[in-house]
Design a protein that fits this description.
The protein is built from five helices and no strands. With 150 residues, the protein is mainly alpha-helical. Helix 1 packs across helix 3 and helix 2 runs antiparallel to helix 3. It is flat.
Amino acid sequence: MPIQSPPGTLPSLPSLSPFAPSSSSSSSSSSGGLWDSVDGLHAWLDAHGAVDGREALLLRVLKLSEEIGEVAQAVIGTTGQNPRKGTTHSWDDVGAELCDVALTALVALRSLTPDAGEVFTRHVAKVAARSLGVDAGAAGQERRAAPPSR
């Protein structure tokens, strides 16, 4: 469902939980094969990249900066903050660019370790415990059961 809001205002965002049920395998998840896709993209980049090894890893990490710049460009375009260009993007565009950032980060993480799914799941659980004071699974259940009011 598209996020719609008047130009120049922030959208009312749905309550999203970053906590998916964990899986014992990094290649299977409830996220529609997310880690299978990450593994496939990693393999495709390895097979078609102009460089390999350490240079490829460094370039994949640097790619995050490019993608974040595209998020900034989309936010500026959504809010019409460039008077010369006006409103050039939508909040859906911002969402798509954020997805590109997340996917780029996951592929970069996969380039560091074949256990990217497990590393990510453990890290999310640590951040949830530190920030929310509960385990990641419980936090996800709480959010699904009773989304916060805005």
